[in-house]
Amino acid sequence: MPVRLRKFIGTILIIVLVLVYALVANTVAVATLGNVPWWGHLLYFLLTGLLWVLPAMLLIKWMAGPRQQ
């Protein structure tokens, strides 16, 4: 697959990933964090705010293509 097409597909997938992840993370927060103290909210949003980076890193690695030797 050409690198240009790979980057285009990866960009679309990252946008979809971020949108879906944000919706799911906020839906879970609204459903479960109603009676949790402020520090629980802080920990949850800190964790979920950083957790999306892992799948995004895999997508970016895939977008770069195979290693050149």
UniProtKB/TrEMBL annotation:
Keywords: Membrane, Transmembrane, Transmembrane helix. The keyword Transmembrane applies. The chain crosses the membrane at residues 12-32, 38-60. It comes from the Bacteria. Pfam families: DUF2842. This is DUF2842 domain-containing protein. It comes from Rhizobium bangladeshense.
